[in-house]
Amino acid sequence: MNPPDLLPILRYPDPRLHTVAKPVVAFDDRLRALIERMLATMYDASGIGLAATQVDVHERLVVIDVSETRDQPLVLVNPVIDWASAETRKGEEGCLSVPGIYDGVERSIAVKVRAQDAEGQSRVIEAEGMLAVCIQHEMDHLMGKVFVEYLSPLKRNRIKGKLLKSQREAQKA
Ligand code: K2U
Ligand code: ZN
Predict the structure, then answer these.
(1) Does the C-beta of 103 come closer than 6 Å to ligand 1?
(2) C-alpha of 115 from chain center
(3) Angle 151-76-19 (CA atoms, 0-180°, nearest 5)?
(4) What ligand has the least distance to the C-alpha of 9?
(5) Whose CA is nearest to atom 10 of ligand 1?
(6) Cα separation of 116 and 24, whole Å?
(7) 36 is catalytic
(8) What is d(CA 12, CA 158) in angstroms, rounded to the nearest whole number?
């Protein structure tokens, strides 16, 4: 079987990254094919998470794999954070849509998420550590939020300028 085709990842400050995703309603072959392509895209980009928003699909779907062995994919459809710890920690974050930029973001250290799997089965996930951070980062994407929005306007404008410059140069090459 051919590996699934990779999907192009939107790059900040593409305005489509600020679209609010709609709930997934059909648990069909189209969804399963999309999940396969998102997983292939995430692994190919060495990411530990990918939200559908980042591949210009505006539905509430996230894939994650925080395992060392890169073989424990987690599919979250229509995820809802039911509980987030009051205790927070500032951690270094990156984003496949903001290549080469890493900065500190404050996140709850633990979250409880209700979501459906690729077949539509509901499940509850209690997460902490990197998985909790990744879930919060991906859920932001589904709300049209990119992690650089937690940074100061000065930093964010510098990042915007840097990325637009590198995108222009890439087009010339
Ligand atoms: O762009 C994305 O949504 C994938 C994110 C997920 C993520 C961001 C920050 C912290 C945890 C997860 C990353 O780009 S995946 C790349 C990466 C890998 C390990 C640690 C941090 C970032
Ligand atoms: Zn991201």
Answers:
(1) no
(2) 15
(3) 45
(4) 1
(5) 93
(6) 10
(7) no
(8) 12
Contact 60, 22 (CB under 8 A): yes
User: How far is the CA of 117 from the CAs of 88, 124, 130, 160, in angstroms?
Assistant: 28, 10, 20, 35
> How far is it, in rounded angstroms, from Cα 163 to Cα 57?
22
Other CB atoms closer than 10 Å to residue 131's CB: what's the count? 21
Q: Which of 9, 99, 15, 105 is nearest to 52 (CA)?
A: 9
- Cα–Cα separations (whole angstroms), residue 49 to 12, 76, 132: 16, 11, 11
Give the Cα separation of 141 and 19 in Å (integer): 9
CB contact set of 161 (below 8 Å; sequence gap of 6+)? none
Q: Which residues share a beta bridge with 110?
A: 128
Give the helix, strand, coil percentages of the chain, each rounded to 5. Answer: 35, 25, 40
DSSP β-ladder status, 74-84 and 122-128: unpaired
Identify the H or E element spanning 42. helix 29-44
pLDDT in tens, 60-98: 999 999 999 999 999 999 999 999 999 999 999 999 999
- Residue among 36, 93, 119, 138 flagged as catalytic: 138
- How high does pLDDT run on average in the chain? 97
- pTM for this predicted structure: 0.96
